[in-house]
Amino acid sequence: MEEADFDEEQLFDNQTETALKGQSDISGVSVVTQSPIGRSRTSPPASYIGIFDHIRGIFAHLQSSKEQGFTVGDFSFNSTGGCSECQGEGSIQKETRGYVFTWTCHVCGGLRYQRNVLDIKLNGKNIAEVLEMSVTEAIDFFAQETRISEPLHLLEKIGMGYLRLGQPATTISGGEAQRIKFAKALGRSRSGGILYILDEPTSGLSCADAERLMDVLRSLVDHGNSVLIIEHDLSVLKACDWIIELGPNGGEEGGRVIAEGSPAELMRQPNSIIGTYF
């Protein structure tokens, strides 16, 4: 399931037999999954978080672009400005006897654009070079463009400063895709009352980046939101207000609530398995 939102009426049906308390404090839910971003394998993070249109617009309004008659579409690698040989993918694939062979496009050299488009420079960088920037590098490059820098700051806050703006979707892991979606959800103008649901959000993160992500989650809670996570990392579980532990094993031998409470309370419950590790 993609990152999705639900309003209060959809979430809380009064005709259900399940007792539910506290729903009046929740105005909506944002479910952030690990499914791929974008609709195609070439969809970059810059498109998903909504900054690529702004970047292309800046390039299109340069005087050198106007002199060449370029439009916003010419700075999209899957539109008029893309390499005609590889259709803006930067590589060519061929299937032979069940095997798929991939090699860098010999026309654009993997840059995905037509050569005349790459002649247009913004502060010394062409559009392909901008897409090769990491999130952290792009924050400095677009420091005066808040529509671009603010979404990038959110990505950096959750440990994604290394991500390249034009990185193909096929090279982005499920955990990375989830955090990109989470950054997009954070950028929406909502003040409190949102229940965020995430599946193992610290997967693949270093200890330092995981702690940065936890700081963001704590900030969400401090601003009147709630966070529900599925997680196995003990450092994350220790930071939770309430834990529902399922077990006692996996598969058919699991799925039952064997303990619940705060980390301190789980330490005192004989049925808890994770409580013994706190």
From TrEMBL:
InterPro entries from the xrefs?
Answer: ABC_transporter-like_ATP-bd (IPR003439), ABC_transporter-like_CS (IPR017871), P-loop_NTPase (IPR027417)
Q: Give the family per the record.
A: Belongs to the ABC transporter superfamily. UvrA family.
* Gene Ontology CC: cytoplasm
Would the keyword Coiled coil be found if you checked this record's keyword annotation?
Answer: no
Name of protein: UvrABC system protein A
Keyword Protein biosynthesis attributed: no
Q: Which residues form a coiled coil?
A: none
Boundaries of every ABC transporter domain copy: 32-273
Q: Where in the cell is it found?
A: Cytoplasm
Which GO biological process categories is it annotated with? DNA repair
GO molecular function terms noted in the UniProt entry? ATP binding; ATP hydrolysis activity; DNA binding; nuclease activity
* Alphabetized UniProt keyword annotations: ATP-binding, Cytoplasm, DNA damage, DNA excision, DNA repair, DNA-binding, Excision nuclease, Nucleotide-binding, Repeat
**Stored PANTHER family:** UVRABC SYSTEM PROTEIN A (PTHR43152:SF3)
The record's principal subcellular location, in a coarse class, is cytoplasm
